[in-house]
Amino acid sequence: MPGQPTILILNGPNLNLLGVREPATYGRETLADIEEACMERASALGLAVEFRQSNHEGQLVDWIQEARETADGIIINAGAYTHTSIAILDALRASELPVIEVHLSNVYRREAFRHHSYVSQAARGVIAGLGGQGYELALEAMARLVQE
Ligand code: DQA
User: Is the full-model pTM beyond 0.90?
Assistant: First the structure.
């Protein structure tokens, strides 16, 4: 619907494997299930959503750059790039959009290398450990941020 704020929801590497990948850590929900829940939640909140996944850092950077012109906010689960990618951090900063970082797992209960996030340095908030529900909570928070 024209006039609705558009939120870009980005998913990084290996998140296409949700449902079969380490279910003890990431649950049984697939990325398609999460996308469906986000679409429902977004429509109740009056938001439009663009939901994407890529295994490629440069593709994620390209989408973040485009968002500057086409979106009003970014929700991102950058997967392992969270912990490594200065390029994604720089792109998020350059976008000048509100950013919310999401992780399915509680990264702070896991290996030490998951405790540092480059993405966090560009994020207004971080939601971790609540599975797919974290994306819906991020949409709720984003609905307020885009009104600011
Ligand atoms: C993740 C946590 C990351 O450390 C990991 O590399 C992922 C998924 C999460 O959603 O819990 O791929 O971002």
Answer: yes
Read off the CATH number of the domain in which 18 is found: 3.40.50.9100
Burial of 30 (0-12, 13-18, 19+ CB in 10 A): middle
* Catalytic positions, written as ranges: 26, 103
15 occurs within a structural domain? yes
Instruction: Give how many domains the chain has, as a whole number.
Output: 1
Q: Does residue 117 line the site of ligand 1, with CB under 6 A?
A: no
- Contact between 4 and 46 (Cβ < 8 Å): yes
The answer as to whether 1 is a domain residue is no
Residue 107 near ligand 1, beta carbon < 6 Å: yes
Two tokens, residue 5: 């704020």
Q: What is the chain's pLDDT, residue by residue, as a tens digit (148 residues)?
A: 468 999 999 999 999 999 998 998 998 999 999 999 999 999 999 999 999 999 999 999 999 999 999 999 999 999 999 999 999 999 999 999 999 999 999 999 999 999 999 999 999 999 999 999 999 999 999 999 999 8
* Ligand 1 pocket, residue 105 CB under 6 Å: yes
